[in-house]
TrEMBL record:
SUPFAM superfamilies: Activating enzymes of the ubiquitin-like proteins, Quinoprotein alcohol dehydrogenase-like. One of its GO terms (molecular function) is ubiquitin-like modifier activating enzyme activity. Belongs to the ubiquitin-activating E1 family. Residues 631-960 form the THIF-type NAD/FAD binding fold domain. This is Bardet-Biedl syndrome 2 protein homolog. It is found in: Cell projection, Cilium; Cytoplasm, Cytoskeleton. Residues 166-267 form the Ciliary BBSome complex subunit 2 middle region domain. Residues 336-363 form a coiled coil.
Amino acid sequence: MQLSNAQPVFKFELNHKVTPGIVTIAKYDGTHSCLTASAGYDKIIIHHPHGGMISGRAQRSQAHGEVSELNLSQAVIALTAGQIKPECNRDILLIGSPTQILAYDVHDNSDLFFKEAQDGVNVIIVSHFGKYNEMLVIVGGNSSVLALNSKGDEIFWNVVSGKVCAMITFDFDKDGENELLIGCEDSYIRVLKNNQFIMELAETGPVLCLSQISEVRFAYGLANGTIGIYEEGIRLWRVKSKQNAISLQWSGDKLACCWTNGRIDWRDDTGRVLHRVQMRSNGAAMLLADYRLTGIPDLVCISDKGEVLGYPPHQENVSSNTISNKFPSEEDRLAVTELLNKKQALMVELQHYEANAASLNQEPEMSNTAMPTNTRLQVAVAADTEEGCLQLAISTNNETIVRAALVLAEGIFESGETLARHPDQGQLKSILYIPLKPPRDVSVDVHIKTLVGYADSEQFHIFELTKQLPRFAMYVLVESSIIKTNNESYVTFQITERIQRICIWVNQNFLVDDEIELDNDEMRELHISFLCLRDKSRLNLDFGSDGKVKFSTQDIMLAGNLIQSLAIYLNLTDLQRGFRLTAYLSFLSRLNNSEAFPKRQVLNSNQKLVYLAKMVENNEVELSEAEAEQYDRQIRLWGLESQKRLRASKVLIIGLSGLGAEIAKNIILSGVKSVCLLDDEKLKETDLYSQFLAPPDKIGENRAETSLQRARALNPMVDVTAETKAVDNLPDSYFTTFDIVCATGLKQEQLERINNICRDSNRKFLCGDVWGMFGYMFADLIDHEYSEEIVQHKAVKRGPDDTEKNARETVSITVKRRAIYVPLQNALSADWSKPELRSRLRRGDPSYFVMKILLRFRDEYNRNPDPAKRKADTEILLRMRDELVKELSLPVGFISDALLTDVFGIVSGAAAVVGGVIGQEVVKASTARFPAAEEKLRQEMTIVSEIGDTRQRLAVETAEKAQLITALLPAAQDAASFDLKEMLNRYKEVILLNEELLTSCHVRRATQEQAMASLQNLHTILQQAARLRVGKYSKAVVTACRKAVTDNNIEALVKILQVGDT
């Protein structure tokens, strides 16, 4: 297609190099446009063709009479200008450096404000936003967006997950208020409204430029050379080039694009190029401005060598030569070109048909190679768990083969957006598999073009199909019995919606072979599990009959994507209550009393209830007033959040002997969600000496069922049930339905089996027993993190003088500990011949070996030592003692006879002690969790704080050394006239100070880079936590987190991210 050339209406040279992307045009006097650009590291040039020389800090350039130079002390990263000064029509120049923002009034030569930007500066715009009446300065940093007013005060702040590369404001949703569109390095275009994100548009590369082109349309440019247009969130068209777009502007009725190589083209509504020009060097910027004072904005194009070209908004269809009216118009030329293209395609298709017909006439004995008329192309997508990808299967419905396939998809293939497959001649089949690995959870349209025919054909038919991959296609549905549930990381919330609609949402967003449907209309719950093909991680979706939803996943980003997708589908405007992500964000710190109630304040029972009820009303806890009163002491001890986590725990207690009753009592009173009492034995008279839950008139009945009534009476808020089956008759999956399993009165083989089941499914396991005055407790919490308060003492001065005696001040600090547990099987099979274990025998504690003897007795005789058979059982115990001593080569007399005579029956006091210890461990296992991300959050906050202190210290040292140099230089110059030796000494000192200043500069640069990385990691966590909420709650979390970060309050930040705005 022949293109016409556009002719500039003005052209001039700046005689300065221009930094690409750092250019603006402003009216500093309110009337005349001045081109302002970065001309190097710290230099700004201002071209003023109408207003004479710019006064103040700017100096006339020697290279150009109409250019003034403004030198700064820092690198120039971003430039823009706008009327931010109240009641003033003059533009104020906004200069962004790596860590600062300067608002400079060029006309009055004054600074409007100076603001530190901890997150850096990449983009600055000036515009109206939302309900704010004043013009705002909106700054895009490395991972956040900041808005300032004319005084430099912060108006709002928000976090994004990537570096901000471009920003514009316009009325995106047509409600009369401007929204902020943010183009990020993570390939998303985000729409911010009232400081909360209302839409995310996924693209295939970092978004470099954005531009509004109408009331409902905007253009975008990507780092991979793609440009396109969106209308109301829907992409209209896009094209791709080998160059990157520097700027996009809507000029007249065409989209003008300036590319990095200096090419400028104008496109129509469909993306077709109408005009094209080439500058002499690479492009630097393209802006709209009334540079000729005609009242109509021109398209001002600037190259990196300082060439400036101006084009009118409406281009005439003229070539470089004079064209008479006899020549056809551009529209006619485009129509003719389109008809020629269609003719060429039809001619090629006709030639193919003629070639097939000729082959049939020449070789009639050969099989018919013409394409059957009923040939259809079939496409299916299946999950491949072994390869960790999706298999795109392309096949035909008959004996024809797929000779080649071309697949076009956004952001799936590492090498680009297109993948071609053409098997060798010997591998041709009627089906072709193509692996797909979407790196992100976004919906993708896969466009497929194939060549279909016979293996010996020379001409093939082209078939085209489009297959849409759902957003969560990389998660394959698995049976609940196959995948083991892990509740260490989850998020919960409450909705009111029919399960039928939830099923529709799952079917639309996940790749399922058979659509999920309810077995009957009365079903009110849905529990499904998925396996991630990328990393084999697990995802569980639980929708309860009471409207409570729980997403269990280790990936906080996935949790946020699921919530946002569900909220959009169900049209949820606000969603907050009950969010929790325990393993990834680790917001589960063990809160002390000062976090639950006001410090140094004694509260009576009514005041406590009112205080807790108020917190319930403020959506800070999920406890009713009755629960708040019931668990008052516990909340004061370990905090509200720990009590809520404890209330969500489901506990299984095996064996309702005296010890089992004590454990059940402690756990039920603590306020767990549910307790199941499992026992298949009958109640005996001897049980009544220590088993207080079973009434005396129930002898001969099942111990679990007889204990049910009194157990429920302990705490009506806990769901207590009974199970009468034997442990050996229960499947492994039964034990995985509980969070914690406590076992008593079982054989060693049974204990090891249940322990292994719990470890495989990441469940906590505890066991114990009591024989007479002897008892034991074993806990396997797998990998457990907890906090410990350490008291330290340090010497302090009581008075100002040294004669006063020193005092000791007590300081209490909380440290995190981590314990790695071993299974019971390892603990019972320890090799006591090893020196490190052998040395423990010198301590003279035989308790461990007494436990092994009693477990062997139970394994062999299926009971405990019986007081009615004391003599016979004692002899058995002594025999087993001798066998164990010989087996383990223990010292003779290490286990005395007296120890084995006090292990008959169950002493209620011993059962109470062991039961209390086990109950306490259950509470700890339920409430004290410190996963990895909380540690990461604390580390990043600590690093940021330390870097801030280091930067201040280095700044002070640099200023002191600069003052010394200022003082030494005149002294050295004075000494040159009378004392050369003194002059040399002075200059040596100056050189040393200069070297120290250079070293400090390198250190400051390194600390700044580290600070940027830590802030970006911190902001990523905040942005992901905000995505776990919807609507006003998401906005509240961001605002509260901003204050916590500003105040350097780590504990407040952790709590806010966990429970929301507090």
